[in-house]
Design a protein that fits this description.
The protein is an alpha+beta fold. Helices cover about 40% and strands about 20% of the residues.
Length: about 475
């Protein structure tokens, strides 16, 4: 009988914090910018320069810790992790090994298999490294230190996940929580959220974990899923052939759907950690923790509960809308203007979702304003525009954020309710379609549908369909 294997997965998730300036200096953290323009002696590691801790970094780290049920370490400090790499300006990274700011938390995830708690071992603060840019033309590597010193938190889970599905549910839960807190935008494509996957396999029922590998270079949820499946299969194959899995760091190539070894990794790899002599310990008072706690926003679960009581929209819609801070904010702001939660929810769930999918965008990329969506809903409610026109206007608003009312006026899109103008068009349609008229008079009532359609076409979708129907029946 074939052996049954179980996958054991733990994650290290790096999140760039949304501070305006870096963790130990006043340089900008903005993404992009010409190479090496967001730099100073501190973040380029110049001798004699001294780091000064950014208070906002500590507050964001605490906020994420509190939202993930961690205990806050009230006396914590920074350590130096020594390693030599071209994009690491001081030849060490300032991180936290011995006393990380948050410990022993958990988040609850839900998959097809039900609910489950994933434990968080710790969250620590550290600085990001620079970026190596490989120039194939000149056959050399250049270093851009703009990212160097951007504040990170690293969220280290326990090896509690057993499938790619659980991993994605955990990452989505973290991303949503952190976005709600405003601690980071968590854009995987810009590297502001990055996950390293530690994975091992073992026979079902075995007490010991197998040998784990660590996979890097994963910049989308799809890539993470593919990498987990591929690495699971690779390890099982090795074990089936009687070979051993080597503990190493592997790099995932998403185009080739293949991972290759980067370096072997010992548990006791000598980073020569020691307390950073330039930074004083961080003492966090109970009052400070309370203050951060009191500023925590309403998170997804509480929001969903409130929506059920307040807005009377379906649970499915509530889960999708509260699943993204951007959608929830849009929903609430638009509803506050037009007081029509069901209609707002419909526009978000149907047309907005359709266009996001078509254009491969994230909800965070939506640019239209609540004012414009409310104006569009008001125009359709008053029958000032037809549903066909409303969809056209919405597409325009989605891409260009036009002023809806002005656009409708300027392009003559208001519904024609003028009976005499409509009557003329209907008479013309009747004259042009004698066959349909004959069919209708011979008792084929469906033929009127064709005539309504032709009238709407002639009116460029701007006629009131009820009125068209009424006039047609009269004239026929």
């Amino acid at each position: 009988m074939a052996k049954q294997y179980e996958t054991v997965i733990g994650l290290e998730v790096h999140v760039e914090l949304a501070t305006k300036t870096k963790i130990f200096c006043g340089c900008s953290t903005e993404f992009g910018g010409a190479a090496n323009t967001h730099t100073c002696p501190v973040c380029t590691g110049m001798p004699g320069s001294l780091p000064v801790l950014n208070k906002q970094v500590v507050e964001y780290a605490m906020a994420v810790g509190l939202a993930t049920n961690c205990s806050i370490t009230q006396y914590c400090k920074f350590d130096r992790k020594n390693y030599f790499y071209p994009d690491n300006p001081q030849n060490y990274q300032i991180s936290q090994l011995y006393l990380p700011i948050c410990r022993e938390g958990h988040v609850e995830i839900e998959t097809a298999g039900g609910k489950k708690q994933v434990r968080i071992h710790e969250i620590h603060m550290e600085e990001d490294a620079g970026k190596l840019v490989h120039d194939d033309w000149e056959d050399c590597s250049l270093v851009d230190f703009n990212r160097s010193g951007v504040p990170l938190i690293e969220i280290v889970s326990e090896p509690d996940m057993r499938s790619a599905e659980e991993v994605i549910a955990y990452l989505e839960k973290l991303r949503m929580t952190i976005q709600y807190l405003g601690a980071s935008d968590c854009k995987l494509n810009e590297g502001s959220m990055r996950a390293d996957v530690n994975l091992s396999v073992r026979e079902v029922g075995a007490a010991e974990f197998g040998t784990r590998t660590e996979m890097k270079n994963l910049n989308s949820f799809k890539a993470i899923s593919r990498a987990i499946e591929a690495e699971r299969e690779r390890q099982i194959e090795l074990l089936e052939e009687g070979k051993t899995v080597i503990q190493e760091t592997r790099r995932w190539d998403d185009n080739k759907e293949y991972s290759y070894a980067m370096r072997s990794k010992e548990d006791a790899q000598d980073y020569r950690y020691f307390p950073d002599p330039d930074l004083v310990p961080v003492v966090i008072s109970s009052e400070w923790i309370q203050e951060v706690k009191s500023r925590q926003p309403e998170l997804q679960e509480e929001k969903a509960e409130r929506y059920k009581k307040e807005f009377g929209i379906p649970d499915y819609d509530i889960n999708i809308i509260t699943g993204s801070k951007k959608l929830a904010d849009l929903f609430e702001a638009t509803t506050a203007i037009c007081h029509n939660p069901k209609k707002v929810s419909n526009w978000l769930m149907v047309e907005t979702m359709r266009l996001l999918k078509e254009k491969e965008m994230e909800p965070a990329d939506i640019t239209y304003t609540p004012e414009n969506l409310a104006a569009l809903i008001k125009l359709t409610e008053e029958n000032a525009i037809t549903s066909t026109v409303a969809k056209e206007v919405f597409e325009k608003m989605f891409t260009e954020d036009i002023d809806v009312e002005k656009f409708v006026e300027d392009n003559g899109l208001r519904t024609v309710n003028d009976e005499s103008a409509l009557r003329e068009t209907v008479e013309q349609v009747i004259a042009d379609n004698p066959q349909s008229v004959a069919d209708y008079q011979a008792g084929k009532t469906k033929a009127i549908g064709f005539l309504v359609g032709q009238t709407m076409k002639a009116m460029r979708g701007k006629a009131d369909p009820g009125l068209v129907n009424k006039i047609l029946r009269e004239l026929l």
